[in-house]
Amino acid sequence: MTLIWLSIGWVFASALVATLPMRHQYFPGVVLLLAAPVLIVLAGIQFGWIFALLGLAAFVSMFRNPLRYIVARLRGEHPEIPE
């Protein structure tokens, strides 16, 4: 039951961070970006791999731009950051 409440809290936190101006989104966005895989793995352990796969799809959909940025940086590129 705790995992469900943590997941609901994560959703509300991500909605709150999305309302912030872009320059204020970086730190809380990184925290949410790091917390999501932990919640997805725990959901997979508790509810099964299908729910983990659905959570992973939602995660990649929500964080597609930051994930593209990270992949580009790992390749040695220097993508632009919006202001």
Per-chain topology:
Elements: H1 2-18, H2 26-47, H3 49-62, H4 64-74
Helix pairs in contact: 1-2, 2-3
Write a concise synopsis of the structure shown.
The protein is mostly helical. The protein has helices spanning 2-18, 26-47, 49-62, 64-74. It contains four helices and no strands.
Q: How does this model look, in words?
A:
The chain is mostly helical and 83 residues long. The chain has one domain (2-74). Helix content is 77%, strand content 0%. It has four helices and no strands. It has helices at residues 2-18, 26-47, 49-62, 64-74. The radius of gyration is 14 Å and the shape is flat. The mean pLDDT is 90.
User: What summary fits the major beta sheet?
Assistant: none
Say what oligomer this is: single chain
Return the string of H and E elements.
HHHH
Helix content: over 70%
How many separate domains make up the residues?
1
Low-confidence stretches: none
Strand content of the residues, in percent? under 5%
| Rg over alpha carbons | 14 Å
Terminal residue distance = 39 Å
Tally of contiguous helical segments: 4
Indicate the mean pLDDT: 90
Q: What sort of overall outline do the alpha carbons produce when their principal axes are compared? A: flat
Structure class: mainly alpha
How many strands? 0
Fill in the keyword field for this structure.
83 residues; mainly alpha; flat
